[in-house]
Amino acid sequence: MAVPKSKISRSRRGQRRSHDALTGKTLSQDPMTGEVHIRHHMTPDGFFKGRQIVGAVEED
User: Fold this and answer.
1) What is the CB neighbour count within 10 angstroms for residue 57?
2) Would you say 46 and 52 are in contact if contact means Cβ atoms under 8 Å apart?
3) How far is CA 49 from the centre of its chain?
4) Model pLDDT, residue 60
5) CA 16 to chain CA mean position, Å
6) Do 38 and 26 touch, CB atoms closer than 8 A?
7) pLDDT tens track of the chain, all 60 residues?
8) Residue 8 DSSP SS3
9) What gap in Å lies between CA 41 and CA 24, rounded to an integer?
10) How far is CA 51 from CA 19, 46, 48, in A?
11) What is the pLDDT of residue 12?
12) SS3 3
């Protein structure tokens, strides 16, 4: 099993982990409907890049 040859200080460990933080999803606004959606995904109404891709879903 691998064992470290010398102690890694808290500072050096923190410097290595500084880029590991999670980021939130990037949101965009549809130009036609003004809805907010995840980038490169269609809106809940079925619009993508100002065009309707999927017809509206009717709920019973």
Assistant:
1) 8
2) yes
3) 18
4) 59
5) 23
6) yes
7) 899 999 999 999 999 999 999 999 999 888 878 888 899 998 888 888 888 888 755 665
8) coil
9) 15
10) 37, 8, 5
11) 96
12) coil
